[in-house]
Amino acid sequence: ILAALGLAGIGGPSVGGGINGGVTGFPTPVPQCPYQTYNGQLTGSTAGCCQRNYCYTPRSTILRSASGIATYQGNWGEYEACSVSCGGGTRKRTRPCIRYHANDTCEHESEQIHRCNVAPCPNFGPWTPYGQCSSTCGAGTQTRSRPCLPAGSTCADDNQGGATQSQPCNNGACPVYSNWSPYGACDAVCGVGQQTRSRTCTAASGGAPCTLPLVDTKSCAVSCGSCQEVPGPCQNYNKCYRVITTQC
């Protein structure tokens, strides 16, 4: 067996469990039966060796160790969570270096760091101009907004607030309108006409102007009763025609 493992002729203490021949070995953390290569570094195990919880190390590894018992590395652990959710972060995984002596070192890396979540973080775009004041006069508010990019993303609030901002605005003192006057008489003598009402407006100095209507009209009707057509005098002697009026 030793010749097959490339260990013949290597001196050193025997390892218990009835293994003889001066083969240097060490206990494995977990029995490897049936034979498996342990992390790519332990080779040459036999079923009988593993049943006694011992495995042999390659000749070159034994020769590199002053103690005759080689260090080796365990399996890689799971990757840790990414350090950031977007914008490029890192995640790490490690594997143990299993030593016989405190000052022993492992030949290969014990830590791997990979980049993760490299997609850019959603960011707010530029602000739009403030919109019109919510009130044409007196106190009101006006609002501006900004998009979250890329479209459809959700942006976190920053030191400038969220997606919208509002500020107070004032277009000056509001004008003062009087009450409407009563509607006047219908302007028709007979049939359908209109009647009108009005109001006044006083604008403050430096305030908002009067913009609302000051006159209001509505339809009205006057009963014609009994009426007759009355011809007027002739208007043109070359071609006489008469204006017909209605009198009620």
- Number of domain units: 3
Low-confidence stretches: 1-54, 56-67
Q: What is the general shape?
A: rod-shaped
Mean pLDDT: 74
Q: Helicity, in percent?
A: under 10%
What assembly state would you assign to the polypeptide chains in this entry? single chain
Spatial gap, N to C terminus? 140 Å
Number of strands: 16
Secondary-structure-derived class: mainly beta
- Strand content is 25-35%
Radius of gyration: 51 Å
The largest sheet is:
2 strands, antiparallel
SS field, number of helical segments: 3
Order of helices and strands: HEHEHEEEEEEEEEEEEEE
- The largest sheet has its strands arranged as 1-2
InterPro entries: Compl_asym_regulator, TSP1_rpt, TSP1_rpt_sf
Keywords: Disulfide bond, Repeat, Secreted, Signal
Pfam families: TSP_1
Subcellular location: Secreted
Overview of the structural elements:
By secondary structure, the protein is mainly beta. The chain has three domains: 1-70, no CATH class; 75-121, TSP-1 type 1 repeat (Single Sheet); 176-197 and 214-248, no CATH class. The protein is 6% helix and 29% strand. It is built from three helices and 16 strands. A two-stranded antiparallel ribbon has the order 1-2. The radius of gyration is 51 Å and the shape is rod-shaped. Mean pLDDT is 74; it is low at 1-54 and 56-67. InterPro entries: Compl_asym_regulator, TSP1_rpt, TSP1_rpt_sf. It is found in: Secreted. Keywords: Disulfide bond, Repeat, Secreted, Signal. Pfam families: TSP_1.
